Amino acid sequence: MPTLTTPQRSPALIQLHRADALAVRAELTAGLLGGAAHIAPKYLYDALGSRLFAAITELAEYYPTRTEAEILARYATDIARGLPTGATLVDLGAGNCEKAARLFGALKPARYVAVDISVDFLQQALQCLQREHPALELLGIGLDFSSQLALPPEVGAGPRVVFYPGSSIGNFAPVQALDFLRQAREVSQGGALLIGVDLVKPVSVLEPAYDDALGVTAAFNRNMLLHLNHLLGSNFDIAHWRHRARFDAAHSRIEMYLDATQDQLVQWPGAQRLFRRGESIHTENSYKYSVAGFEALLGEAGFTGTRCWTDARNWFAVFTAEAGGEPT
């Protein structure tokens, strides 16, 4: 008697983000020529930057990745109990898709939508995932959602669970985070949000997580200058820049900087800036929340039915929240 086999699907891929070299150069130039020079943290992640960040997650000092993973593994069944069954799982900043894939058994999604800035990065991960889950509908979307979160109709109707792990919400200033959460509520179509949030903790824990003894985070930060040289045609010399991370208690955030170690003239087509010794480029913020503070932010964004799980030390939290009603 013939053996019945599950038909093999193939992941669908949609590239919505199109790099605009002129817009990128304009954004970078505006940041570098500002009164206080700054560059958006998304420019930390070229190919080498992504590999360096993967190495950071393996460091003893960098607790967020493994602590979030421990929470999700320990409480997966309880977390799933409060989420809609048979929903579409929308994974924002999916990367290699591993975090979401670990939840498939508990969440049992009807389809999985992996969102990242480039489908080229997602393609191999989704192909491997499809072999492991041949019956599951997989869709990869190349989208830069840092300024606007809007999903194409190919994602399909019905409730969605928007998954935003890794404490990436901390890269947004609170006002921006509120706007982003409101957008997440809209795209969830009456479903829910599943999000990882880093919590306030002693400076003795926070600062080493962003300035490790091996200097991997320093390399990650300084590599941004090499990325700028490629994108902008600038002449940054990383030998003359030092990584610095500090916790700003007044704003409840880690701040990362690159400090000039000597006077230097940085030039690129059409512009230049003299950086004096000690002058900085601000490269990233990572806001830290209290449980009550983030619950209040979710409520302000229109979510209800908030639930929360933390690790034993209260270093990290995973929240679920119901979108409820029709999208507004």
In summary, what is this structure?
The chain is α/β, with parallel strands linked by helices and 328 residues long. It is built from ten helices and 13 strands.
Describe this structure in words.
With 328 residues, the protein is of the alpha/beta class. The chain has two domains: 23-59 and 203-287, no CATH class; 63-201 and 288-322, Rossmann fold (3-Layer(aba) Sandwich). It is 34% helix and 25% strand. It has helices at 21-33, 47-56, 64-81, 98-101, 104-107, 119-132, 174-187, 203-209, 216-232, 291-300, and strands at residues 12-15, 88-92, 111-116, 137-142, 160-164, 192-198, 241-248, 253-260, 264-268, 271-275, 280-287, 304-310, 316-322. The strands form three sheets. Strands 1-4-3-2-5-6-13-12 form an eight-stranded mixed sheet, with helices on both faces. The chain has a three-stranded antiparallel sheet with strand order 7-8-11. A hairpin with a 2-residue loop joins strand 9 (264-268) and strand 10. It is globular. The mean pLDDT is 94.
Q: What percent strand? A: 15-25%
Provide the CATH topology of the largest domain.
Rossmann fold
* H-E string: EHHHEHHEHEEHEHHEEEEEHEE
Largest sheet: 8 strands, mixed
**Superfamily at the CATH H level of the largest domain?**
Vaccinia Virus protein VP39
Instruction: Give the uncertain stretches in residue-range form.
Output: none
Classify the helix fraction into a percent range.
25-40%
Q: Order of strands side by side in the largest beta sheet?
A: 1-4-3-2-5-6-13-12
Number of helical regions: 10
Overall shape: it is globular
